[in-house]
């Protein structure tokens, strides 16, 4: 029997993708926002597609700030971490 593939909705595109194709963004109890490479950090998780163009468009439009509710502070370090994780995935494993 085929295994069910877990699907999650990307907060940037509002499209459903397999969970493995997304990066988790977490807001913890203290209100800190971080990109979660492991998928196991404590806090409220949202998912972002691994697509540089969509992440850069989201940065320009401040989509994460609107969705997460951090309109007063910039989330540039979180965008940078998401981009770093995307590039890390593109490296072929030996």
UniProtKB/TrEMBL annotation:
<dbReference type="InterPro" id="IPR035931">
    <property type="entry name" value="YlxR-like_sf"/>
</dbReference>
<protein>
    <recommendedName>
        <fullName>YlxR domain-containing protein</fullName>
    </recommendedName>
</protein>
<dbReference type="Pfam" id="PF04296">
    <property type="entry name" value="YlxR"/>
</dbReference>
<feature type="domain" description="YlxR">
    <location>
        <begin position="8"/>
        <end position="83"/>
    </location>
</feature>
<dbReference type="InterPro" id="IPR037465">
    <property type="entry name" value="YlxR"/>
</dbReference>
<dbReference type="InterPro" id="IPR007393">
    <property type="entry name" value="YlxR_dom"/>
</dbReference>
């Amino acid at each position: 029997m085929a295994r069910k593939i877990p699907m999650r909705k990307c907060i940037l595109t509002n499209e459903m993708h397999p969970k493995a194709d997304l990066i988790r963004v977490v807001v913890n109890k203290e209100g800190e926002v971080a990109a979660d490479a492991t998928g196991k950090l404590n806090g409220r998780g949202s998912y972002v597609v691994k697509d540089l163009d969509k992440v850069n468009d989201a940065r320009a439009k401040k989509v994460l700030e609107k969705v997460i509710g951090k309109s007063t502070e910039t989330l540039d370090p979180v965008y940078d971490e998401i981009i770093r994780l995307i590039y890390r995935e593109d490296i072929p494993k030996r």
